[in-house]
């Protein structure tokens, strides 16, 4: 018979996501959640089993027979008490999906128990991730980060939003060609169209970073904000892209902040903030994940048929998802 701790752990198995604050290493996030889950699972210790023991009895009656008098009693087995054996769960392994460096924030996907297998499947799929990049013209650093050593300063008064959008469109077009190059599928086939509609058109396995979408969301020099949709990226690569955009505009630029707004089907709306990293909140998040997974598996009744001559590149570009509202993150402990 399963104990309360085992039943609680089974309800925790699956995928969920949290909001990683800026300045916190992903290992600290994982360790904090592991500790909270252990506390939640072991909060209801199993009942102490009882065992039958024969105890010596005493009798004051004059007619009692001589010799030892014993009686049977049911007593708790102290050798199996939680204070002796310790908590039932000593360790809970929490897996981490696509990681974020300490300077970045946003959606971080985690897994518990058998959810680690689903996490490996998420790694092997060609689902994209969305980022919001807060950038600034006029400065270049040696490592493309705002805390790096400044190597160059430049003017930016000649930059307009139209010029910035032309550069982003050029980069997006070059990456669309790379996406088709790395995809092992005929671009004129029905398979390519269906993969593009589902947002799954991309390379098999690892490849160079690819930007499947890039657009300017806000422009107020020297500040500007970019929305990026990409595959096989790293946060350092995204900062380097901002640096290259500055060079293309005859200026310099540095990325002030990187925030992931979507990882696969996990968005900011699904992310748990630091004050909700408890076992109960994780349990609800995992339940929502399983419910949404069932909904995604339901067959669609209406299937849109492709138009002859339709461009797969245009379909892919149309798959960009709107950025969700920001989730305020608490400070690191």
From TrEMBL:
Name of this protein: TruB pseudouridine (psi) synthase family member 2
Organism: Kryptolebias marmoratus (Mangrove killifish)
Family: Belongs to the pseudouridine synthase TruB family.
Entry-linked Gene3D superfamilies: Pseudouridine synthase (3.30.2350.10)
InterPro entries with a match to the protein in the record: PsdUridine_synth_cat_dom_sf (IPR020103), PsdUridine_synth_N (IPR002501), Trub2 (IPR039048)
PANTHER family (alphabetical): PSEUDOURIDINE SYNTHASE-RELATED, PSEUDOURIDYLATE SYNTHASE TRUB2, MITOCHONDRIAL
Single GO term (MF): pseudouridine synthase activity
SUPFAM superfamilies: Pseudouridine synthase (SSF55120)
Pfam families per record: TruB_N
UniProt-annotated stretches for the region Disordered: 314-333
Gene Ontology biological process terms in this record: pseudouridine synthesis; RNA processing
Pseudouridine synthase II N-terminal domain segment(s): 91-232
């Amino acid at each position: 018979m399963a104990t309360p701790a085992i039943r609680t752990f089974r309800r925790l198995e699956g995928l969920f996501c949290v909001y990683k604050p800026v300045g916190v290493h992903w290992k600290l996030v994982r360790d904090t959640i592991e500790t909270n889950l252990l506390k939640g699972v072991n909060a209801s210790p199993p009942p102490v089993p009882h065992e039958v023991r024969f105890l010596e009895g005493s009798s004051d009656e004059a007619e009692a027979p001589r010799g030892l008098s014993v009686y049977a009693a049911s007593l708790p087995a102290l050798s199996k008490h939680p204070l002796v054996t310790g908590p039932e769960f000593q360790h809970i392994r929490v897996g981490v999906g696509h990681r974020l460096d300490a300077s970045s924030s946003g959606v971080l996907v985690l897994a518990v128990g058998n959810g680690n297998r689903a996490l490996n499947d998420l790694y092997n799929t060609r689902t994209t991730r969305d980022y919001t990049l807060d950038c600034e013209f006029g400065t270049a650093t040696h490592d493309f980060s705002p805390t790096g050593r400044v190597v160059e300063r430049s003017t930016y008064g000649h930059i307009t939003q139209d010029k910035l959008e032309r550069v982003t469109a050029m980069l997006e077009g070059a990456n669309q060609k790379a996406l088709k190059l790395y995809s092992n599928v005929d671009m004129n086939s029905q398979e390519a169209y269906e993969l593009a509609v589902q947002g799954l058109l991309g390379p098999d396995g690892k490849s160079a970073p690819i930007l499947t979408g890039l657009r300017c969301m806000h422009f107020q020099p020297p500040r500007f904000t970019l929305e990026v949709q990409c595959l096989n990226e790293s946060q350092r690569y995204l900062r380097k892209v901002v640096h290259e955009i500055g060079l293309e505009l005859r200026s310099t630029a540095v990325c002030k902040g990187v925030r992931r707004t979507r990882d696969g089907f996990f968005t900011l709306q699904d992310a748990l903030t630091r004050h909700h990293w408890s076992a109960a909140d994780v349990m609800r998040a995992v339940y929502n994940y399983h419910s949404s997974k069932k909904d995604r598996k339901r067959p669609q009744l209406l299937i849109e048929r492709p138009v002859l001559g339709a461009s797969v590149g245009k379909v892919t570009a149309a798959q960009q998802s709107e950025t969700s509202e920001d989730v305020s993150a608490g400070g690191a402990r």
